[in-house]
Amino acid sequence: MEEDFEFDYTEDAKFSVERYEEMIRKQDLYFFDSQSFDGIIDYYIEKNDPIKALQVVDFAKTQHPYVASFFIKQAQLLINTGQMEEAFDLLEKAESLEPSNSDIYLLKGSVMESREWHDDALGYYQKALELSDEPQDILMQIAYLYENMGDYRSAIDNLKTCLQFHGENQDALYELAYCYDILDLQEESIAFYLQFIDGEPYSYSAWYNLGNAYTKLSLFEKAIDAYDYAILIKETFGSAYFNKGNALINLERYQDAIAVFKLTFEYETPDAETYCSIGECYEKLELMDEARSFYKKAVKLDDGLAEAWFGIGITLDYEERWFESIHFFKKAIGVNDSNPEYWFALGDSEYKLGNYESAAEAYEKVLELSPQDMDIWLDFSSMHFEQGNLTEAISILYEGIKNIPDLVDFHYRMVAYLFSDGQYNESLNFLQKAITNDASKLDQLFEYLPDLEKQSLIMDIVNRYSV
Question: Are 26 and 116 members of one domain?
Fold first, then answer.
């Protein structure tokens, strides 16, 4: 934890700093009252010069050895540089001089928390809370401690108490949303923010977090309404525009989403994620030139944005420019090699170009990363089937059935593979089971291999079990 120092550089403070620096230059010895020392110390802290601040503290303690604030400031500076034991000793001295100062216990709690002595830290924070006239920051610190302990429910309780003292505490509102999210309590989150908004109707943060909770429950229309209120209250709220755009994408309102994303550029510098989202919208509208243009803008700003490289590849794949698409799929994989969607797309492009060995390598990576993906088992086995490698196709699909045993789609496909391989009895057994489980998907079999409709063995089973 770092305590915030606020320094008002008044004329008196300016004079004190100039006088102190004059003393250093002349190697002389001047006297300063404790208030002047406080101003000088805060000046160097604001200037991000902890070494000079510590030098002033040491000097101040020689002239005012019984002023607790100097020991507290020195302890804070040492905590910021990781010198916890020395800081704690100073806080002990400060406590002996001014035991009612809440800052002492807040900093002691920080030292204990850095050592992961959570119970001791909590005890000191509670002591600070008892002594403080402004408990908001302490309640926030207690909430953070509970989060570090994995006790998100207690963190929520303290954040709610914090908001009772200061309803527009932005950090508390966002942290509360985070805790609800971790606990997957979106309904409770919504209930809280609705109640909170009743008392604080102009809290743009509350409306924004309400929109996020609705989004997580796929209540996109309600989410958009909440984001609109946030934007109405704070017109420059770029994050609300961005999340509203994503909600519109989920509703397949791509043109509306594009308009909203572009509005963010009026209030914030264009960023790679927004460009990428606009590219996605144009892609969904099958306007591939426009999509590719925005994806390229995204990677120009951030060449580590895998989704934008992938998007460029998708637009090229759509235009059957498979050789070019491979380069961009590989760029996406270079950034994030654990995304099965990237490997799947790479495998498909390699397959379309007749690079079967490379396609197989990519498909195998998909199986490793996402064995519950139905399509990869079907596509990978189908590639072998179409190349006449019936044994390999059957083997792959058997593995698929082991991973997803109740998926009837696999059973219908296995009928085609086994029948083509001459394993008629086994094929008919699969067909019987498939029709019994879900006759509505029978068309999949004939769409994949239309010649099976001419096979009397197949049609006898179909007529017998699909009635």
Answer: yes
